[in-house]
Amino acid sequence: MRYLYTLLMYLATPIIVMRLLTRGMRYGNYHQRWPERFGIFKAPELRGSIWVHAVSVGEVNAAEPLIKALRVDYPNAPLVVTTVTPTGSARVQQLFGDSVFHVYLPYDLPFSVHRFLSQVRPRLALIVETEIWPNLYFGCYRRGIPLMIVNARLSGRSLRGYAPMRALLRSALRCVRQIAAQSRTDAARYRLLGADPTQVTVSGNLKFDMPVPVGALEGGALFRQQWGHLRPVWIAASTHEGEELAVLEAHLEVLKRVPDALLLIAPRHPERFRAVEHSVRSLGFATATRSVDRVPGASHQVFLIDSMGELMPFFAASDLAFVGGSLVPIGGHNVLEPASLARPVLVGPHTFNFEEITLSLIRGGGAKRVLQSELLGAQVLDLLHDEARRKQMGCQARVVFDSERGAVGRVMKLIDRMLQE
C-alpha cells in the first residue's frame, strides 16, 4: 500500500507544481520558497531540535501556548515550526518572529522527507491535530525520531474519508509513540483508524489554554469609543464562500429594526478579501475596510476586516459573534476566541471540526446553533435586543472556557516523559 501511495504521489507531482504556480500568483514571494516543498532549504544548526508541525493559522494558534511552554522548559533546544499554508507561515512570523525556525513542510515524497529530516534533525516531532503523512511518519520511525500527535482530532467525516486507505494509515499510526487527543470521541476514532489503544490518551484541547492577547480588551474598548460606545455591533468571523451572502442578508434584516447596527466581517482567506468587498459594496452597504479606513465611521454599515491576526480586539468590540465555516459544510472554526472574551457565540449546523468544543459551549449556555442561514438575522436581532441575555451567555461561555483549561500541562508531562525515555 505504501509503494502504491508513493507512486501516486510521484504521478501527482505535475499537478502539485501547477498548484504552486497558481498560488504563486496570489502570494508575491511564494515562488521564492518553492524548494522548501521538496525539502530544499538553508537551515541553521538544528541538531537536537524540537519540531512542531501546524498546517495553517488555526493549528498555529492552537499550538501557541504549547510552543511557548517548550521555549520555557527546553530553552537550549532549537524550535522548528512547519506549516503548509502561506497564512500559517505569516502567523508563525507574527507570533514568534526569529525565535523559531520556520520552513514549509515538504510534500510526502521519500526524497523530500529525507532532505527535510536530514536538515532539521529533530529529537522530537510534534504533529498538531490531524496531519497523517505515511512517508513522513515512516521516515521518522526509521531514524528513531519519537513522533507524537498533539491536540489530536478526527471528525467522523475524516474517518469515513480515510476508509480506502485504512490499512496504510494503520501502519503509519503505529510509527507514532503517543496520541494526545482533544476528547474521548477523538481518541475513539483514532483507535478505530488503527492506532495502538495503549498509546492514545485524552489530554484536552490546547486552544482552551491560549492566552488572551495583551491589549485585546483595551483595543476593543478603543474601537467602541471611535464608532460609538452604544452602537450595536456584531461580527461574522472566518467566513467562507457561500456564507458572506447569508451574513449580509442577515444584516439587511437587522438594519430594518436596528438602523445604526454595524457588521464586522472577516473572511477566512485573504485571497478572498477583494471579492467579499465587491459583494458588500454591490449590495449597497456603506462600507469601510481595515486596510484603507482603519476603523468604521458613524455612517458605515459594514466594516471589512481585510487583515490577518487582528480578530481578538474586534471580538472584544462586538456584542456577539457568529463563527463561520458552519453555515456551509466546512466544519466550523474556533469558537473559543470569542468565548475567552465572554462574548455570546452563534454557529451554523456544520461544526464537525470543533464538535466537542461547540457542544460544550452550547450545553453550557454560551453558544447557540442557527439551523438555517435564513434564521441568522432573527437570531442576531434577538440577542441585540436582549442585553441581559447577551451578558448571561457571555459569562457562561467564559465559564466553559475556563473549566476546560490545562491541556498544555498534560501534554508537557507526556513530552517530558518521552524525552526522558
Automatic annotation (TrEMBL):
Chief site of localization: membrane
Matching Gene3D superfamilies: 3-Deoxy-D-manno-octulosonic-acid transferase, N-terminal domain, Glycogen Phosphorylase B
The protein, known as: 3-deoxy-D-manno-octulosonic acid transferase
SUPFAM superfamilies listed in its UniProt record: UDP-Glycosyltransferase/glycogen phosphorylase
Function: Involved in lipopolysaccharide (LPS) biosynthesis. Catalyzes the transfer of 3-deoxy-D-manno-octulosonate (Kdo) residue(s) from CMP-Kdo to lipid IV(A), the tetraacyldisaccharide-1,4'-bisphosphate precursor of lipid A.
GO molecular function, one term: Kdo transferase activity
Keyword hit for Glycosyltransferase: yes
Pfam families cross-referenced by the UniProt entry: Glycos_transf_N (PF04413)
Residue ranges of every copy of the 3-deoxy-D-manno-octulosonic-acid transferase N-terminal domain listed in the record: 32-210
Record bears the keyword Transmembrane helix: no
The reaction(s) this protein catalyses: lipid IVA (E. coli) + CMP-3-deoxy-beta-D-manno-octulosonate = alpha-Kdo-(2->6)-lipid IVA (E. coli) + CMP + H(+)
Keywords linked to the UniProt accession: Cell membrane, Glycosyltransferase, Lipopolysaccharide biosynthesis, Membrane, Transferase
Associated pathway: Bacterial outer membrane biogenesis; LPS core biosynthesis
